[in-house]
Fold this sequence. Notes:
The complex is a heterodimer. By secondary structure, chain A is an all-alpha fold. Chain A has helices at residues 2-30, 32-35, 73-109, 111-125, 129-140, 144-171, 174-181, 186-222, 234-243, 250-277. In chain A, helix 3 (73-109) packs antiparallel against helix 4. Chain A is 74% helix and 0% strand. Chain B has 2 domains: 1-88, no CATH class; 89-332, MetI-like fold (Orthogonal Bundle), CATH 1.10.3720.10. Chain B has 14 helices and no strands. By secondary structure, chain B is mainly α. The chains are: A mainly alpha, B mainly alpha. Chain B: Its main location: membrane. Chain B: This is Binding-protein-dependent transport systems inner membrane component. Chain B: The chain crosses the membrane at residues 7-31, 102-122, 143-163, 202-221, 256-282, 302-328.
Amino acid sequence: MDEARIARRGVGPRLWLAGGWLLLALLAAIFAPLIAPQDPLAQDLMLERLPPFWLDGTEPGYWLGTDSLGRDLLSRLIFGGRIAFIVAFAAALAACLVGSALGLIAGYFGGWADRIISRVVDIWMAFPPVLFAILLVAVLGTGLSSVIIAIAVIDWTRFCRVIRAEAMGQSRMDYVENARIAGYGRIGIMLREVLPNVVPSIVALLSLEMGIAVIVEAILSFVNLSISTDDPTWGGIIAEGRLSIHQAWWVLVFPLITLILTVLSFSQFGEALKARFDPVLR
Amino acid sequence: MLLQRFLIRLLTMAITLFGVAVVVFVVIRVAPGDPIAMMLPPGATDADIARLRALYGLDKTIVQQFFIWLSGVVRGDFGTSISLRQDVLGLVFNRLPATLELATVALVMAVAIGGTAAILGARERGTAVEAGIDIASGTALSIPDFLWGLVLILLFGVLIPVFDISGRVSPQLDLPFITQFYLVESMLRLRFDLTWDLLKHMLMPAVALALPLAAIIAQLLKQSLKEVLDLDYVVLARVKGFSETQVILREALKNAALPTLTLVGVQFTFLIGGTVIVERLFSYEGLGNMAIDAVINRDLPLIQGIVLVFALLFVLINLAVDMMYALLNPRLRHG
C-alpha cells in the first residue's frame, strides 16, 4: 500500500517533465523548417567549428555552434529529431503489434503455439541485438524503412516475452473461466477479456521501446548505416562529434544531451503511464 | 534429475544454435549486392566472376550452400573471410579473447558496484541514502551502454584526460604476449606496466557496459535483502548483538543472492551483446568491432562465423547459469 502511494505521488512531476521534453522535441521536429535558424545542410568553411553562444568567437544565429564543415548544430539537431521520432513511432508500433499478438497467442493458448513461439524467441535472444540490426540494415539497404523494419524485426521479442507471461497469468484467472462457461469463444475471450488486462504493460513497453528505437537509430547512423548520409541524424552528428572531439567538444555534447533526455523521458513516461493505468496501483 | 535437466538443456541449445545458423544464412543470402563483384577490380571479366563465385561456393543453391557450410562448421571449418582472405575461425579466435576480457572486467565491475550499492541501500533502508541509490540506479538503467560510453569519453577522455579513449593497448609498446589474453598474460608475466596500460584502455568501455547491469543488481539484490532482513533468523542474529552490516554480510546475503544470480546470467548475455557497439565506440580491437567491419564489407563467411560464436557464447552462459541455479537451489537439488 505504501509503495503504491509513493508511486502514485511520484507520477505527477515525472510525467510532466518527461512529457514536456518529448512534446517540445516533437514539435521542434514537426515544425523544423520554420524553427531551425539555418539550413541544416548549408556548409560554410568560413564558419567551421564555431563554439556555442556563451563562448568567444561565435556568430549570431549559430546558437550551439557549428561542426567541422560549418553547418549549424542546432538546426541539424532539430532536423535530426524528425528521423528519430519517425523511427521511434513506426518501429516501436510495428514491434509492439507483432510481439504483443504473438505473446498473447502463446500465453493464452499455450500448447504447440506457445512451444513454437517460445523457441523462435529463444533463437532471437541468442543474437547480439546491435549486430543483428546492423546486419539487417546492411542487407535491406540503408534507408528509413530499412531502419524501421530492422528494429521491429529485432525487438518484437521484448513485447512477446512480457505479454506472454501476463496473458498466461490472466488466462488462469476466474474471470476467464467464467467467460468460457458463459459461452464465449476462445478468440473472443482472448481479445475481449485478456487483452484489456495486458494493455497497461503494452503501453509501458511501447514507450520504453520508442526510447530504444531512438538509440538503435542513433547507433545505426553512428556506424553510417542508417538513412542517406545527407539528412542530419542524431547518431550521425555524434559520429562527427566523436571524430572532432578534441577540436569541437560541443558537436558531441549537444546531441548526447538530446539523446539522453529523450531516452530518459520515454522510459519515465512509460513508467508513469503504467502506474496510472495499473488497477492495483490506482 | 540434474542430469536429465542438463541433457534437455543441451538439446534445446543445439536447436537454438541450428535456428541461429538458419536465420543468419537466410538473412545474408537474400541480400542484394554481390560480395564477389566488390572483391574484383573494375576490369574483371564475367569468367573471372564466375570462377570466384565457384571458389566461394556461391554458384550453388541456398540449401546446398547451407549444408556445405554447416558440414564445415561441424568440422571446425568456418570458411575463408572474403575481405581479409584468412581462415574465419582463426580470425574469430584472434579477436575473441579481447572481447572476453572486456566483458569479464565489466561483469566484475557490475557485481562490485551493484553489490555494494545493494548492501548499502539495504543497511540504510528508508533513509535518504536508499532514495539516492534508487535514483542513481534508475538513471543508470535507463541510459544504454552506447550513451554511457559517450558520456565517459567526454568526462574522462577530454575534460579530465586520465584514460585512453581508443584502442586496446598503446601502439608504441612492445608486446611479449604469445596468447591474445593480454590482460591475463600481462599479470602472469608480472608485467604490471602493461597491465596498467591495458586497464587504462579497458576501464571506460568496461564501465559503460557495467553501469546498466550494476543498476539491475543494485535494485534486485537490495529488494531481496530487505525481504530476508525481516525473517526470524536474521532478527535473532541482530538480537545476538551483530551489527547491521555483519547481519547482512553473514546471514542475509547468501539467502538473498539466488534470484540475483539467475538474473545476472541472463543480463550478462545482454552485456556481451553490448560489446559490439561499445568496442566500436572505443576502437577496441575485439570481436564486435570486427563484426561491424565484416557487415560493412559484406564479408558473408566472417559475419556467419562471428554471429554463430556470439550465439554459442550466449547459450553456454545460459546453460551455466541454469546448472548453477539447479546446484545452489536446495529445492531443486533434493527434488
